[in-house]
Design a protein that fits this description.
Number of strands: 7
Helix content: 25-40%
Strand order of the largest sheet: 3-4-5
Largest sheet: 3 strands, antiparallel
Number of helices: 3
Order of helices and strands: EEHEEEHEEH
Number of domains: 1
CATH architecture: Alpha-Beta Complex
CATH class: Alpha Beta
Distance between the termini: 29 Å
Length: 117
């Protein structure tokens, strides 16, 4: 059963400037919905980001890293594989090695399912 934000008081949607819907917790929505969020294709899906100017140069701030407070040198994994679901409960901080292992296992299991008679 799919749950929509209007039925659930602890999550909200932020609409990106290019028309994507990004699922977030209410507390994040209250403080960050004022920014102009964009969505672009990445390695494992589409990712929400905003642009800030640091030392005169534009820099992308990714929403999932901001929500999870991911430290430098680590990555943020979306547990349900929906990269536009940026609720805290869906995010997990891990090493790049561990993250690649998870996605490698997913590819192998998908391939194995297609090979079974």
């Amino acid at each position: 059963m799919m749950v929509f934000p209007d039925q659930c008081p602890f999550m909200q949607i932020i609409k990106s400037t290019n028309g994507h819907c990004i699922l977030v917790d209410v507390e994040f929505w209250l403080t960050h919905s004022c920014y102009k969020w964009k969505v672009k294709k990445g390695s494992y899906g589409y990712y929400a980001y905003r642009t800030v100017i640091i030392k005169g140069k534009p820099r992308a701030i990714f929403m999932h890293r901001e929500v999870a407070k991911t430290p430098k040198g680590f990555v943020t994994h979306h547990k349900n594989r929906d990269t536009l679901d940026n609720r805290k409960s869906n995010l997990e901080t891990m090493t790049d090695f561990d993250h690649k292992q998870i996605h490698q296992l997913n590819r192998i299991s998908r391939f194995a399912r297609t090979m079974t008679p």
